[in-house]
Amino acid sequence: MTAAVTPATGTKSGSSIRTPERPFRRKKQIGGRARANILLGYLILIGLALIYIYPFLISISASLKTDAEATQNALSLIPDTITYAAYERLFGDVPFPQWAGNTLLISVVVTTGRVFFDSLAGYALSRLQFRGRTVVFVAFIAILSVPGVVLLIPRFLILQQLGLYDTYGGMIIPLLSTAAGVFIMKQFFDSIPVSIEEAARIDGASTFRVFWTIVLPMARPALVTLFILSFQGSWNELGHFIVSRQSPELNTLTTGVASLVSGQLGSGNQFPLQLAAAVLMTIPVAVLFFIFQRRIMNTTAGAEKG
Amino acid sequence: MAVNAAPRPRRGGGIRRGEARAGWLFIAPAVFITAVFLVIPIALALWVSMSDWNGFQSPLNPRVNFVGLENYAAITVEDGLDQRNFGTAVRNNLYYVLLVVPLQTIISLLLAIQVNRAALRGRGFFRTAFYFPSVTSTVAIVVVFQFLFTASGAVNAAIGALGIRGPDWFNDSTGLVHGALSAFGIDSPSPALAEPGFLGISGWEWLAGPSVAMTSLIILAIFTTSGTFMLLFLAALQSIGSEIDEATLMDGAGPFRKFFSVTVPMLRPTLFTVLTLGLIGSWQVFDQIYVIGGGSAGGTISTPAFLAYRSSFVDLQWGQGAAIAFILFVFIILLTLVQRWVLKERTPRKRNRVAATEKIAANDSTSGGLR
Known about the structure:
The complex is a heterodimer of chains A (306) and B (371). Helices cover 70% and strands 0% of the residues of chain A. Chain A has helices spanning 2-5, 21-30, 32-63, 67-72, 85-91, 96-127, 133-144, 152-161, 168-172, 179-191, 195-202, 207-218, 220-236, 239-243, 253-261, 271-291, 293-303. By secondary structure, chain B is mostly helical. Helices cover 68% and strands 0% of the residues of chain B. Chain B has helices at residues 2-5, 19-49, 70-76, 81-115, 123-135, 138-148, 154-160, 176-183, 191-194, 203-206, 212-250, 255-266, 268-282, 287-292, 304-314, 318-346, 349-366. In chain B, helix 11 (212-250) crosses helix 12 (255-266), helix 13 (268-282) packs antiparallel against helix 16 and helix 13 (268-282) packs parallel to helix 17. At the A-B interface, helix 2, helix 3, helix 4, helix 6 and helix 7 of A face helix 1, helix 2, helix 4, helix 5 and helix 6 of B. Chain B: One of its GO terms (cellular component) is plasma membrane.
């Protein structure tokens, strides 16, 4: 975790930290056969990259086609006639803006809550001495292995019991904290030295004040990690919103677009419409991904180095 | 590290005053949410799985009866539709796991090795390309895949160019093994294989292989998870470092020899992590199947996770739905325990922490987790 949360060091393309220069130069001297190998390697990689990217590209292009063209000429990258009909329908016949609003609201609240509550708990489990701390920590570790998918029925049951079913509360509150988030934050706090806080404490600052003004600012890398995971997680969440609501007004992007797929809106395959929805719902996560790209890649990449 | 957190001698009042109260206050929200929305609900569902609740009023109302293990029996040992549905779901998921886990491991390892090459230009671009599908929502990916894999879709257009006539992927319920056998003229089972067997499914049906529809979902799974696992392998490869690379080069090992005698053994812990994470994640496949509609393709894409949902929310057989969920729950916990146990055995103490972090990071992007 240490390495994971250290900001990527200053090399221009963060990822190339490990690129040693010598082998590169040596390869240049090897000549013909090696060069052919390198070329072949690139060709394989480019082919693979195409397989991974092309589906997204033709989806964008097909969302700008007419229904008929999208069906008949699926492989082509450039539409014969560009039409925004799918997007117009999305903002006309389909309550897409409402879905987006719900998803945005829920994601913002859930992300804020998770970052705050999980770092509070992680800090307490890492630093504060209190009876029962070990028990709580072990319990969180145990909960880490509860598979999310078996929670669908239980979550519905409890929301119904508490009268929270089909409300924003029921959609948001259960997601406000996760054992994984607590664990990530605890690991991070374990890795930073305790001396600075102790100085502040000796000066008489309250525990919360120390946490809020001194510890949290130092924890920025871990907070960013948690922020990314939480936002992406709640933006893309499907299962919980299937079992926590039924009103169409509470549809999120995931449940709403899923209902488009099952063809609730009229006949035909409506590929451009569905693809337009998929493209639009991907944009925020994609933007987040590109902003924090280096950090995301290092979140997992750094972990192994320990 | 852990040293900081170790309990230290009490210092009387001083700076530790009020810490116990603060400690409990700090963990209160997380503990409350976990208790109310995770622990208690699981207990409630355990009760439902042993009751005859039909979805009306509260499951705790006095008219709901305790029926013991009846619901569990209905799906496992009693002949009937419920048992066959469960058996089919288990079979479908089994083939899904058998194909997804090895393929995603191999592909992500190969991607990592390609992307890790020292003299690669544009490696950032390639990493992004391979990782991007892991970031997007399953719903969006399913939309894209349904479009690509329709009868007249891009995939069939592409393989049509090679002279192969593609199937109607997501609606084709033919098992791959059955399909292959019928190419040899074997269209029906021998009498022994036609008898109902384990979980009410005949041997012939057990051997059907994944349906074409399920195969499309297998491709989808590999497409979305290989990026995440690539990052895990990449990290491990980078920690091997260039010294060993050079040493192997000096010793005159060729690329294949190097791969199997140096790289793979050194990656063993990560390999194990990826395999078990894949195993745990692919028994939980739900989102894709929900979006496509688990009843399509002749029931050949239904999985236990989806069946649990459908039995409860659609068929209102809450007891059976909860029972399926619990069987799945226990099974996945067992897999997790085996994983933790082996990782503990294998890795020196210092790395347990690392393994756990790694697990969380990958879990988030492959299965339920934070997602």
